[in-house]
Amino acid sequence: MNKYHYETIVEALHDLKKRGYVEDFNLRPYCLECPRLQLELGAGEFDINEVHRFEGASNPDDNSVVYAISSDQGVKGVLIDAYGTYADSVTPEMAQKLRVDYQS
Looking at the record's lineage, which domain of life comes first (predicted)? Predict the structure, then answer.
């Protein structure tokens, strides 16, 4: 369980940035991509340190997850994703990595 609790995504992103999670990751079929650093991380090259879930107040489609990620190269950042949107669009290795860490 996370020792941090946030009411909003904005609050989470602000605090994570203060704690060094400064990069923005995009989810690609086979990796996480950090465009600013021109970096791609495969499933074995990063850890998910924290997972924060946010549920939409009136619409279940507004559910999101914020992942706090650190790479084996020392890069720290965040990935924001809607619940389960990666399921059919990523490799099995990436889906397993996100699912295992998401459910921890």
Answer: Bacteria
